[in-house]
Amino acid sequence: MENNKLIEIDMAVATDADEGLRLDKYILAFFPDVGLRQRRRIIENGLVTVNERKAKPGLKLFTGARVVVFEQDGCECADEVSAGLKILKQTDDYAVVYKPEGLHSAKIAGGIEPSAEGCFPKLFSGREPVLINRLDQLTSGMLLVAFGHDQVNIFKDIEEKGQVDKFYLAKVHGVPESEFIIKNRLDTDDRAMTKVLEEDAEHLRWSRVKLIEKLDGDMSLVEVEISKGARHQIRVHLAHAGFPIAGDPVYGKVDDAQDRMYLHHNRITFPGFEAECDSGWK
């Protein structure tokens, strides 16, 4: 079924148990890894219909309602999106792609917003590119790509052994000591905001912070090293330690007048591979 260049990808019929449930909550079954805000955007973009009509996120479902989910036909990579991406390094097994701030790393099921991953077929024609790491939309820097799922599994095994080091640069408010480690475990159940817990995480989830330079206005440039990242790990760890990232709209200072969020993934190393990417604002 096609509908204005949209293709039907899933369908369900509401049962008695779904009576009165909001549409934006009902479609969680279609998008288990997508937060409430994005699910609402998917509905508002016309990618969900109820009984062949567009609906609002707050629509209360009723028994027998036919809910259909669509995606865009083709999911093309616009020239203006691919122009902002750059292949920094490429081997037989892996590649690193620069992603600017403001662009999604991964394709979002049912979404229509552009992503770096959506351009991989264009960047790596004839190969099987698989996105390994994700960056927040507001974070710039390096995306690691594997060529084939075998290479993904090899990387994951190396990562579990603690042999992967990922380095980020961040402009933060305040001036920390020269070096310190943030060990707190994180609660990522709420997709909108990660919470810091009192107990320590396993060592692969620690954030190691090093002062690089003191900046004007009681700010500083720091390097943060992680092995395995959790969602918003660096952002929430730094804020918890009293050094929120400049321009962070979720964990940062209130009324922080910045032109962007200053977090950049600038280096990665693991056995047989290393890549680096300048921030442009250091």
From TrEMBL:
<protein>
    <submittedName>
        <fullName>Pseudouridine synthase</fullName>
    </submittedName>
</protein>
<dbReference type="GO" id="GO:0009982">
    <property type="term" value="F:pseudouridine synthase activity"/>
</dbReference>
<feature type="domain" description="Pseudouridine synthase RsuA/RluA-like">
    <location>
        <begin position="93"/>
        <end position="240"/>
    </location>
</feature>
<keyword id="KW-0413">Isomerase</keyword>
<keyword id="KW-0694">RNA-binding</keyword>
<dbReference type="Pfam" id="PF00849">
    <property type="entry name" value="PseudoU_synth_2"/>
</dbReference>
<dbReference type="GO" id="GO:0003723">
    <property type="term" value="F:RNA binding"/>
</dbReference>
<dbReference type="InterPro" id="IPR006145">
    <property type="entry name" value="PsdUridine_synth_RsuA/RluA"/>
</dbReference>
<dbReference type="InterPro" id="IPR036986">
    <property type="entry name" value="S4_RNA-bd_sf"/>
</dbReference>
<dbReference type="InterPro" id="IPR020103">
    <property type="entry name" value="PsdUridine_synth_cat_dom_sf"/>
</dbReference>
<comment type="similarity">
    <text>Belongs to the pseudouridine synthase RluA family.</text>
</comment>
<dbReference type="InterPro" id="IPR050188">
    <property type="entry name" value="RluA_PseudoU_synthase"/>
</dbReference>
<dbReference type="GO" id="GO:0140098">
    <property type="term" value="F:catalytic activity, acting on RNA"/>
</dbReference>
<dbReference type="GO" id="GO:0000455">
    <property type="term" value="P:enzyme-directed rRNA pseudouridine synthesis"/>
</dbReference>
